[in-house]
Structure formats: C-alpha cells, structure tokens
Amino acid sequence: MSDQTIVSLAALVALAGLMAYAVFGGADFGGGVWSLFATGPRKELQRRAVAEAMGPVWEVNHVWLIFVIVVLFTCFPRGFGALVTGLFVPLHLVLVGIILRGAAFVFRGYGPSPAASENARASGHYARWGTIFGIASVISPLLLGAAFGALTAGEIRVDPAGRVRSASPVPWLHVYPISCGLLALSTCAYLAAVFLVVETTGQLQEDFRRRAIFAGTATASLALFTLVAARMEAKWFFDQLTAPMVWPVIAAGMIAFAGSAVAVFARWNYAARWFAGAQTVLMLLGWGMAHRQYLIYPDIPLAAAAGPRETIVFLLISLVPGATLLIPALWLLFRTFKSPSARTMHS
Amino acid sequence: MLTAIPSLLGNSSLLPSRLQMAVTLAFHITFAAVGIGLPLLMVISERLYLRTGKVHYRSLAQKWSKATAVLFAIGAVSGTALSFELGLLWPRYMQITGAAVGHLFGLEGFAFFLEAIFLGLYIYGWDRLPPKGHFWCGVAIAFFGALSGWLVLGVNAWMQLPVGVQLDSAGNVTSVNPFAIFRTYAWFTMALHSTLACYIAVSFAVAAVYAAGYLKGRRDDYHRFAIRIAMTVGTVVALLQPISGDLIAKFVYRTQPAKFAAMEAHFETSRYAPAFIGGIPDVDSGTVRFAIPLPGVLSFLATGDPSSEIKGLNDIDRSLWPNVALVHVSFQIMVGLGVVLMILGIWFALATWRAGAGALDSQRLLRAIVLCGPAGFIALQAGWIVTECGRQPWVINGILKTAEGVTPYPHVWPVFIGFSALFVVLSITTIGLLRYLARSPVGSGKQE
Ligand code: HDD
Ligand code: HEM
Ligand code: HEM
Questions:
Q1: pLDDT tier, B363 (very low <50, low <70, confident <90, very high otherwise)
Q2: Cα torsion for A301, A304, A307, A310, to the nearest 10°?
Q3: Which residue among B80, B123, B429 places its CB closest to the CB of A98?
Q4: Which residue, A137, B17, B213, B264, has fewest beta-carbon neighbours within 10 Å?
Q5: In angstroms, what CA-CA distances link A226 with A18, A151, A175?
Q6: Is A81 within 8 Å of B77 when comparing Cβ atoms?
Q7: How does DSSP assign A31-48, residue by residue?
Q8: What distance in Å separates the CA atoms of residue B382 and residue B333, rounded to the nearest whole number?
C-alpha cells in the first residue's frame, strides 16, 4: 500500500472514532444539558431518566475521545503538537469540563440522594453536583465545537520553523467558531432527547419528545447559520463543502436529519434514533471529506503531519483483533441495557 | 523535583509544567491503582460467594463494586487529563513518543474500552446477568484493568530505554521498529513490579478500613472476611515484590547509571560498594549522613557479585545528575515500607495459622494493620518519584531533555494552580463519598 493510502486510512480511523464519540458521547453530554434544564412537574424524573440512560455506558462512550487522541498523536505526531498548542486554552477548558462532568456524575449518583435521606446536607450535595454536572455538560461540547471551528477557519498558523501562533488573539471567539460550538451543543441535546424518547414512557416520553422538537429546530437553524458563517470566515472550507464530492454527503446528512424530524413527529421512536445517529455521522463525514487534505489548514497538510509508516501500520493492523474483541463486547453491553427487551424487563 | 534549577530560569513554562505533570500523574495513579487492585478483591469475594453461598461475600463484592465505580470514574477523567496534558505540555516529547510507541497507547485504548464495558455490565448487571456471567464480567474488569496498566508501563519503560527509533539531526523521528519495545526485558520487569504494587497498595488499604471497623466493635463475619481476603492477597504479593524489585534494580544499574547511583547515594566509584539503610545524601561533599552502610551489598544487588565495581556519581557529568537527595530518600521510603508490609503480612499469616479466626482478637495486630493502611500507596508514589525524578534531566533517556520537551506556551502557572485546586476538591469529595458508601447499607446492588 502506498504511504498516501495508509495516511488516508489513519485519518479515516480517527474520523470514525470522532463519529462514534459524537453520537454516543454527544448524547451523554446532551443528557447533561437536559439534566441542567429539567423543568416542570417531572423535573426529578427527567433527571433520573438521564442518569439511568447514561449510567452503564457513559464511561465506554467516553473512551472514544481517548481513542481519537491516541490515533492523532500516534499517526500524526508532527502536527499533533502544533494542533494542541494552537488550541491550548480551549482544550484546557474542555478538559476541565470533561473532568467535572464525569466526576460530578458519579458524585451525584453515588452520594446521598434527597429521596433516601431527608437531611439538608444530602440534598445540598445532590443539587450542587447535579448543577456542576449540567454546566460541565454544556461547556465541553460548546468549546470543543468552537475549537474545531477555529481549526477549520485556518486560525492556527504554523511557521516553517514549527512555531505556532494564532491568526488572531482569541481564535475561537469569532462568529464561525462560536456557531460551530453552538451547533455541537444543540446536536448533542437533540441526540440525547431523541434517544431518551426511546428510553422513557408516558408523560416523561412526551417531555423528551418536546425537547427533541425544540433542539431539532435549533440544530437546523444553527446548521444554516454556521454555513453562512463559514462562507464569511472560512471561505476555503465552504468551497470544499460545496465541492462535487462533498455536497452530496452533506445533502444526505440533511435528508437523514429531515427523516429524524419526521420520525419524531410521527412517533416512530426507534427510526428517529437511527436517523439522528446517521445525520451526525454523515455531517462529520462531510466535514472530514472537506478537510481531507489538512490536519491544520493551511500550514500542515495531513501527509506532512504523518509519522513513520511502521507505527501507523502497526496501529491499523491492531484495529483488527481490537475490533474483534470490542464489537461483541459492545454489542453485549448495549443489548443488556439498551435493547427493547432490556427496557421492558427493567420496567 | 527541582533538579535543573539553572535551566528552569530560561523557560518560564518548565517548572509549572513539571509540577502539573507530577500532580496529575500522582493523582491518576492513586485511582488507577484502585482500578487495578480493587476488582481483584471484588472477584475473589464474589467467587467465594458462588462457592460457599455466604451472603457476606456477596455484600462485600457489591460494596467494592460501588467503590470501584466511583474511583474508576475519577481514574478515567484524570487519565483523560493526562492524555491531553502529554500533548499540551510536552509537544516535542509527544512528537517523538507518539511516533515511537503511540501504538502501545492504541492497544491500551482497547483495554480501556473493554474494562469500561465490563464495568458497566458488572455494576449495573447484578440483577440482569446470570451469576456466573456476572462473575466473569468481574474477572474481565480485573484483567483488562491490569492490562491497561501493563501497556502504559510499556511507554514508561520506553522512556527509560528508548529502543527501536531513529532520529534525524532536527530531532524528527525517521524510522521506527514498533516491535522493539516488546522485546525489552525492561518493560516486563517494570510492568510486573508496578502491577504488584497496585495490588499491595489496595489490599493493605482495604484491610485497614475493615480492621478499623473491627476495632470499633463491628466484630462480625462481614469484617472478618474482608480482612482475610485483603490481607491474604496483600501478603502474597508483598512477598513477591522484592523479587521483582531486584529485577528492576539490576535493569536500572545497566541502563541508567546516574539514576542507580542516585537511588543508592553512591558517590565514589568502588568495589564492594555499600548499600545504605536510611541516610541523607549531602551532594556538595559527596557523603551520606546518618546511614548504616552494608558493605558489598550494593555491588551484589547490582550484579550478583559483591566485589564488582559500581560507578559512582562523581564519575558522571554533574549536569546529568538527578536530584540525588530526593531520589535516594524516595527509594528508601519505598523499600522500607515494602519491608514493613512484608513483616505485617508474615505476622498476620503466623497469627492466623496459630489461632485461626481468633487471630483478629489481637488488638496489636489490628492496630498495626490500620497503621499500615496508607503504606502501600506511599510506597507506590515514592517508587514513581524514583523512576521519574531519577530519570532527570531526561524526559526520554538520552534522546530528549525535559527542558527541550516543554511547551512554548508561556502561561502554564494558572493551569497548574487551577488543576491542583480541582484535584483537591475532587479528592475531598471522593473521600467523603467513600465514607458515606462505607456507612450506607448494601442494597440489592441496583443503582439509582
Ligand atoms: C507498593 C509499592 C511498592 C513496593 C512495596 C516496592 N516498590 Fe519498587 N516501585 C514501585 C512500587 C513499590 C512503583 C510502582 O512505584 C515503581 C515505579 C516504577 C515502577 O515500575 O514501579 C517502583 C520502582 C522501583 C525501582 C526503580 C525502577 C526505575 O527507576 O526504573 C526499583 C529499583 C524498585 N522499585 C525496587 C524495589 C525493591 C527492591 C523493593 C523491595 C521491597 C520495592 N521496590 C518495593
Ligand atoms: C502513574 C504513575 C506515575 C507517577 C506518579 C509519575 C510521576 C511523575 C513525576 C513526579 C514527574 C516530575 C518529574 C520531574 O520533573 O522531576 C513526572 C514527569 C513526567 N512523567 Fe511521570 N509518573 C508516572 C507515570 C508516567 C507514565 C506511565 C508516563 C508515560 C506515559 C509518564 C510520563 C511523564 C512525562 C512526559 C513527564 C514530564 C517530563 C519530565 O519531568 O520528565 N509518567 N512524572
Ligand atoms: C503507571 C502508570 C499508569 C497506570 C498503572 C495506569 C492505569 C490505568 C487504569 C487501570 C485505568 C482505568 C481507570 C481506573 O482504573 O481508574 C486508567 C485510565 C486511564 N489512563 Fe492511566 N495509567 C497510568 C498512567 C497513565 C498515563 C501516563 C496516561 C496518559 C496518557 C494515562 C491515560 C489514561 C486514560 C486516558 C485513562 C481513561 C480511560 C477510560 O476512560 O476508561 N494513564 N489508567
């Protein structure tokens, strides 16, 4: 295989990891968002539904992020340093968010809950970590999305000597990066709401259905807005998105999105779940195809960032036995906790 | 830790980056050790339940699975912090390490996945899985936890002995043999020693918790079983640990003479070199104060021959010395506590052999167990200080100096302060939560 093919495969693997993180990890962040914005008479029930849905799977979903990082620094070591140096501040903030989100989730879940013991300290603990869990779930996808935006907009520049600087003082605080962040956030919220509709019944299900419709509308509007912002601030990327190879993928993503919206309205809950997942995957595929030449636009093309061939080949080959173990295990996990029969057994 | 003060002044991000790394790693290893050690005790207990049907064993396994769930989550988020930090704070280091041994992190990723999957199944599956299946999920957690530790140790072993990589004059990796690290003996010995260390740290700490309860009058089977499981595992492993420690010491002697000499505060090159018990090295005069020398022992430990000549620090370029006092004292703490835990284990074994379950009637034994609760964790941290600070001034031995690896980003102090504060809050909350879990009755094992 040519070096070119191997580098593309490695990039594809990183992208696949990113897709899995976006769908599964994204839904967990979205769950945190709905936990923060739980309202109405079934406020506590909503929070509990989120906690039950996330409980057995969130740690696994989180590992996808580690996977992406590992693939990046193993296969693209020459660009990874510049990438993270250029995004030093937002990535640290994302990191704080990720740490607090995970910690707060277990602190709330395993600590004294107001239901079990009535004392004020217990409900203080529960409320405090619940709020932190929610806020951290909002911050992380928002800033990760903004960091992505800054990257695509070409805000990170690397000079020939390898020194990194940003094109503007706070590269992630522009219209396009911020709209990317908001889009990431609303996509997470949408995925979570659609998934939670499947996992709940009755009035609670209606609550999440309303949330899905709200978040879906927001996601559609933000997606359009982000396109316009890309046209203004990341022209090269917009041109790539509308190139002949790429736009059909984006269009397919939009169709999947429309499909999920129809399914939500029609109460085809399982179909909605699949469509919403497909939508996210297709949109990221479109992003990846548009970005395929570069790790960091415009200074670090993928090929220049790639490390030695032997390590990449080792990593790619190790995916085969890795996946052989992983896929049945994941299947077992999701079948045990997420299949229709698991749900009826539980209730 | 401040081995390279002069070079620190030149680069304002170096000191906070090193401190940040030290704090994050020390924080992570505490939870990672629990993630490796506690599942072992948990499955032993569940196995005993399946064999004997005694419900206390099941309650213990459930209690420990809850503690594992909390501690694993903190371990996972702090590990995530590390995988970001390696790139954020040490971009040059990561450029070389990623190219050379990133594939080990890749394999570790699969171990993380599998560990997390079986943890989810185990913790939430008490009522959903058949008992045997549930037990095997526990075994899988213990196995994949140990495997993930084992794999990351490959990276650390490579930092001590960077094999299989070629660099050009600009410091870019030009070619790699990804298999070279698998053939090193260093990896095996370090991973073995470190995995055993995790079992030691967790076992004695768990034994201490239940011994404290026993002393307070909770003299029931539940506490007795817990102490017996934890002390048995701890004793067996503590007896094995010096063997693996000796293997590592010989490896360090062969590959990192400066570190070895610093560990032993060995200044003058000599035959029949002495090992010291205790002692504070005085770097300026090249002497060790308040130490008991054991002549010839160091030569023997390093090579198996008491008359062999051991290179001293004075024959090594001063700029390549690590912080001798720190490394020597940490080494003494690790070995000293290892010996203490061995003695405690033997004491427990003899008492049990003589008096059976009555062994726990001895207040003195119980108090000793409680007192030694933190010893394993302290030894673990001390050992890592030996390894990591002893490697200075290199981050990748012989290839990259720590000062050259650090980020050009100038404002690392706020990051260090912020993260340290965060870790303090998380530690306090975790301790409070564990105390709460210890008090609360064991339910059906279902989580809310
Ligand atoms: C419970 C903890 C514990 C205990 C009781 C011991 N160790 Fe240890 N030791 C560690 C925990 C540890 C560790 C996990 O912290 C280290 C750091 C790196 C590693 O692989 O293991 C370590 C490193 C380490 C090193 C340095 C390796 C390097 O720098 O590359 C040596 C030479 C020893 N040990 C030797 C011993 C000996 C002779 C012991 C005799 C009792 C001993 N250790 C007990
Ligand atoms: C988990 C147990 C570990 C502990 C407690 C630990 C401890 C430390 C300490 C105290 C330092 C600061 C040393 C100094 O600057 O003087 C350090 C630095 C560092 N460690 Fe570790 N370490 C551990 C494992 C690892 C592993 C497994 C890796 C590799 C993957 C690693 C990579 C590094 C790096 C890159 C630095 C910064 C550069 C340097 O100071 O040399 N550490 N660690
Ligand atoms: C000797 C040192 C280390 C040991 C023994 C160790 C072991 C472990 C274990 C057992 C876990 C599972 C979580 C838990 O049990 O709490 C874990 C998690 C993790 N570790 Fe470490 N680790 C070490 C050092 C490092 C270093 C240097 C890194 C940085 C790259 C790292 C990255 C991670 C990550 C990313 C996770 C999270 C995985 C997840 O989400 O499940 N670890 N580690």
A1: confident
A2: 100
A3: B80
A4: B213
A5: 20, 14, 9
A6: no
A7: HHHHHHT--STTHHHHHH
A8: 7
Determine the distance separating the centroid of ligand 3 and the alpha carbon of A116, expressed in angstroms.
33
B68-107 burial, b at 16+ Cβ within 10 Å, e below that, comes to: bbbbbbbbbbbbbbbbbbbbbbbbbbbbbbbbbbbbbbbb
ipTM of the complex model: 0.89
Q: Tens digit of pLDDT for each residue in A259-268?
A: 999 998 888 9
For A119, phi then psi, to 5°, come to -70, 160
The nearest CA of chain B is from the CA of A215 a distance in Å of 27
Q: Which pLDDT value is given to residue B8?
A: 42
Which residues have a Cβ under 8 Å from the Cβ of B339 and sit 6 or more positions away? none
Query: Contact A140/A35 with Cβ under 8 angstroms?
Result: no
Peptide bond into A298 cis (omega under 30): yes
What number does the ligand 1 atom closest to the CA of B391 have? Answer: 29
Chain A residues whose beta carbon lies within 8 Å of the beta carbon of residue B120: 55-57, 59-60, 333, 337
CA–CA separation, A91 and A226 (whole Å): 21
> Which tokens belong to A5?
């093919």
Distance, CA of A14 to CA of A100 (rounded, Å): 25
CB half-sphere exposure, B20, CA atoms < 13 A: 26
Ligand lying nearest the CA atom of residue B147: 3
> Nearest CA to A26 among A145, A164, A198?
A145
Strands (E), A229-339: 294-296, 300-301
Query: Structure tokens of A66?
Result: 């580690």
Mutate one of B95, B123, B181 to test the A interface: name it (highest A CB count within 10 A): B95
Q: Please indicate whether, in this complex, the C-beta atoms of B88 and A67 are within 8 angstroms of each other.
A: no
Distance CA A116, CA B159 (A): 50
Cα dihedral sign, B228-B229-B230-B232: positive
Average pLDDT, chain B: 87
Rounded to whole angstroms, the Cα distance separating B145 from B33 reads 9
